[in-house]
Structures are given as structure tokens and as C-alpha cells.
Write a structure and sequence with these properties.
The chain is mainly alpha-helical. It has one domain. It has a two-stranded parallel sheet. Helix 1 runs antiparallel to helix 3 and helix 4 packs antiparallel against helix 5. It is globular. The model has no long low-confidence stretch (mean pLDDT 91). It comes from Occultella aeris. Pfam families: Pyr_excise.
Length: 149
């Protein structure tokens, strides 16, 4: 499961649809509607919110908004609790850098034109549900490669 902290505009078609599906799975886990993935580390940031289902609903809404902008129709009725413009979840700049490198590597293989398009992005923006704060890669991240390169 990869719930990107990056703004969904950076994702290719495959990444955007996978993000939608995985966020729906995260929503099901947080709602207690499935027994799988209950200990997935990426869910920690949603669980830390006062209202986890609303937080993941806001995340899903951000993905659906990007999909709509591209002419895709993601079924918003699947969002259990629509997230408002409430508190945004902190994400460290170190985590964003790690995810950016991870995404760029995927795009170079899957969608090279898009990788070239974003190659000179000075600093990627977070998903609208997140706000960037200084700090290292998140503790919940499974692999934290050396980003000093």
C-alpha cells in the first residue's frame, strides 16, 4: 500500500488509479470493514487524527478531484466521510523527498514523458490533505534509502 504524500497531479494514470484503490482499502481498514492491512504503517498518520475516517475521506477527495480534472470518473459515493478543509496532516520534507525519488524512478520506467515533465520540479507539493514540515523520513517508512546524493 502506498498512500502518496505527494500531490496527486504528479502521478501517472496507473499511479492515480492505484492510489485511489489503496486509499479505499485504507478507508475500509480504518472503518473496521476488513481484517487485512490493519497494522500497515502508512495508516498511522490517519489514525493519529481526531477523526481518522474524515481524514482518509479528505485524502480520497483530493485524489478524486485530480482524477476529475483529467476527465476520469472516480466514484465519490465510495467515500464514507467526506473530509473538509480541516486540519492538515503534517508530512516531513524528508518524507516528501523520499517519495519524490521513488515516484520519479517509477515514472522513468512506466511513463518516461511524464518523468521528463516533472524532472525539474524545484520542490514537489504535498497532497492537499498534508502540510510540509521540516524533518527526516517518517518512522513508519519501510525503506529509507540514503537521500544525500
Amino acid at each position: 500500500m502506498r498512500l502518496w504524500s505527494l500531490h496527486p497531479r504528479y502521478l501517472d494514470r496507473q499511479g492515480l488509479t492505484a492510489c485511489w484503490r489503496e486509499a479505499l482499502l485504507a478507508q475500509a481498514v480504518l472503518a473496521g470493514a476488513t481484517r487485512g492491512y490493519t497494522r500497515h504503517p502508512q495508516l498511522e498518520r490517519f489514525r493519529s487524527c481526531a477523526e481518522p475516517l474524515t481524514a482518509v475521506g479528505g485524502y480520497l477527495d483530493g485524489v478524486a478531484t485530480e482524477a476529475s480534472a483529467r476527465g476520469y470518473r472516480f466514484d465519490r459515493s465510495r467515500i464514507r466521510e467526506a473530509g473538509g478543509a480541516g486540519d492538515r496532516i503534517p508530512v516531513t520534507d524528508g518524507q516528501l523527498r523520499l517519495e519524490w525519488l521513488h515516484l520519479m524512478a517509477k515514472l522513468e520506467v512506466r511513463t518516461p514523458d511524464l518523468a521528463r515533465h516533472w524532472a525539474h520540479e524545484p520542490e514537489p507539493e504535498p497532497h492537499p490533505s498534508f502540510m510540509t514540515v521540516p524533518g527526516p523520513v517518517a518512522d513508519w517508512e519501510r525503506s529509507a534509502p540514503d537521500l544525500s546524493r
